[in-house]
Amino acid sequence: MSQSVARALQILGELGEGPRSLDELAARLEVHKSTVLRLLRTLEHDRFVRHDEQHRYSLGSRLFDLGAVALEHHAVRDLALPHLTSLGRTTGGQAVHLAALEGHDAVYLAKVESTSPVRMYSRVGLPAPVHATAVGKVLLADLPARRLDAVLAGLDLAPFTSRTITDAGAFRAELDLVRERGWAEDAMEHEEFVNCIGAPVHDPGGRVVAAVSVSVPTVLLERDGVHDLLPHLLQTTSAIEAAWSGKEPS
């Protein structure tokens, strides 16, 4: 870890215990005030810290935003895990993933491994390309128009296979289709030998907060066979949503 990052984290840790002045922070970190001030200005620019009229520093609103997202991700993962395990069993031991959007990436929050000797390269915490995965398409399709435009403007539609969608217009059309039918697929777009379907998980307010997918190597099931697993996938996302809202699944 770089020295600057370590010191910035120390500052946040100190402010987590209460407001501090520049002098107090410099004394606690045992560095010159100019060094601490430079770090504070960087943190304040991104809303990680703020200061009052007495020039005492405290934690900023960005941390509360991130904390809320982290708690939400933990909540949906904990609720989803038993349902993901059940989905793996009902689909014949296929790989099941739970993912959420973080910045411009879909990040895996949970994974149920396939019982097949043919495995996907994926793990919890690993980002997945949003344009080449079913979970990524599901998560993007729900974004408000302005945020979606911002994400797509900075998105590199890099090819992973010959089937990856690399044209911006075609990808927007794909997201329109996902919105219309309520689920997405990755037809060997991320890995040559894997087909995948994904569906959204909504919070009680109707916002998509995560996506669940089932991934199957082509040696086990062709694309149409993976589509046949869709009812199991949709039953699972409905069950997770019902658990979140405290209702019985319909």
Automatic annotation (TrEMBL):
<dbReference type="InterPro" id="IPR050707">
    <property type="entry name" value="HTH_MetabolicPath_Reg"/>
</dbReference>
<dbReference type="InterPro" id="IPR036388">
    <property type="entry name" value="WH-like_DNA-bd_sf"/>
</dbReference>
<dbReference type="GO" id="GO:0003700">
    <property type="term" value="F:DNA-binding transcription factor activity"/>
</dbReference>
<keyword id="KW-0805">Transcription regulation</keyword>
<keyword id="KW-0804">Transcription</keyword>
<feature type="domain" description="HTH iclR-type">
    <location>
        <begin position="2"/>
        <end position="61"/>
    </location>
</feature>
<dbReference type="InterPro" id="IPR036390">
    <property type="entry name" value="WH_DNA-bd_sf"/>
</dbReference>
<keyword id="KW-0238">DNA-binding</keyword>
<protein>
    <submittedName>
        <fullName>IclR family transcriptional regulator</fullName>
    </submittedName>
</protein>
<dbReference type="InterPro" id="IPR011991">
    <property type="entry name" value="ArsR-like_HTH"/>
</dbReference>
<dbReference type="GO" id="GO:0003677">
    <property type="term" value="F:DNA binding"/>
</dbReference>
<dbReference type="InterPro" id="IPR005471">
    <property type="entry name" value="Tscrpt_reg_IclR_N"/>
</dbReference>
<feature type="domain" description="IclR-ED">
    <location>
        <begin position="62"/>
        <end position="246"/>
    </location>
</feature>
<dbReference type="InterPro" id="IPR029016">
    <property type="entry name" value="GAF-like_dom_sf"/>
</dbReference>
<dbReference type="GO" id="GO:0045892">
    <property type="term" value="P:negative regulation of DNA-templated transcription"/>
</dbReference>
<dbReference type="InterPro" id="IPR014757">
    <property type="entry name" value="Tscrpt_reg_IclR_C"/>
</dbReference>
<dbReference type="Pfam" id="PF09339">
    <property type="entry name" value="HTH_IclR"/>
</dbReference>
<dbReference type="Pfam" id="PF01614">
    <property type="entry name" value="IclR_C"/>
</dbReference>
